[in-house]
Description:
Elements: H1 15-38, H2 46-76
Helix pairs in contact: 1-2
Amino acid sequence: MPEPVETSSPDGVDFGWVMQVTFVATIAVGAPIVALLSVPVDLPSWGARVEFAIRVGAVIWIITALSVFLYAKRQQK
Length: 77
């Protein structure tokens, strides 16, 4: 007999959902924003491009994560 599939009924915010939505939203929304913000910036080497993407992407990621968490927290009530 197969093992039963685990289920979850979280008390409070479902952090798995928050992480998944943050990941998808950051890629879908963040990548175009990073690309648009990189247009006026002089990025002469691949190292400079990577550093720029990490710096800007980190800010976008934290804003997205906090926004998704606050949305989930409000929907919980």
